[in-house]
Design brief:
Elements (H helix, E strand, L loop, with lengths): L5 H21 L4 H5 L9 E3 L7 E3 L4 E5 L12 H20 L16 H28 L14 H37 L1
Antiparallel strand pairs: 1-3, 2-3
Helix pairs in contact: 1-4, 1-5, 3-4, 3-5, 4-5
Length: 194
């Protein structure tokens, strides 16, 4: 058996998907796509005071729709909502707990009003996450997650890294699919306008 350095493998798993399949697919995201509601009753990111969800979280001019407990079935979510979830719940909260980012949560975060602002937030949190994982080295990957991860506190940070990789790949693939759906459902409208 040879010595294996796991840290680069974990980073490369995410970085490869980010570079080869995800991030370029988000370039050119328009505000119309960002806020598009493809089904009735969507959860989204909305100007403060305009949401209809039981919980409207956020510290700035925009809030994100939520409910606790989540309805069954849960409402369909927009690209804005999915990006907000990835930026805050998947990355920023973990960056704060493990890599020195200022503390944040769904209630205190300032959600982006535009697609460009959301992508800038995403890029910042992704870069912080990737640099943080790199800083762990092999020893850091083996240490327990700690109380920030609740019932998973005793699991190694490597397990958290794998979880975050799955979450990013999963949710950003959903965003890409919604972009495809938007393109194909709005193509006829664009052709009629030409």
């Amino acid at each position: 058996m040879t010595d294996q350095n796991w840290n680069p493998l974990l980073r490369d798993q995410l970085a490869w998907h980010w570079t080869s399949q995800l991030r370029a697919r988000l370039d050119g995201l328009t505000d119309d796509e960002y806020l598009w509601e493809p089904a009735p009753g969507c959860w989204s990111v909305r100007p403060r005071g305009t949401g209809v969800a039981p919980v409207r979280a956020g510290s700035g001019a925009m809030t994100i729709d939520f409910a606790m407990p989540q309805p069954d079935p849960p409402p369909f979510t927009t690209i804005a909502w999915r990006l907000g979830h990835v930026i805050v719940g998947v990355l920023a909260v973990r960056n704060a707990a493990h890599f020195g980012r200022a503390p944040t949560d769904y209630q205190s975060f300032g959600y982006a009003p535009t697609a460009a602002a959301a992508l800038a937030q995403l890029d910042t949190e992704y870069a912080t996450w990737l640099a943080g994982v790199e800083s762990l080295g092999e020893t850091g990957l083996a240490r327990p997650c700690g109380e920030a991860e609740g019932p998973y506190a005793d699991r190694p940070l490597a397990a958290l890294v794998l979880h975050i990789n799955r979450e990013l790949i999963h949710h950003l693939a959903e965003v890409c699919l919604l972009r495809d759906l938007y393109l194909h459902t709005h193509q006829q409208t664009r052709q009629e306008a030409s």
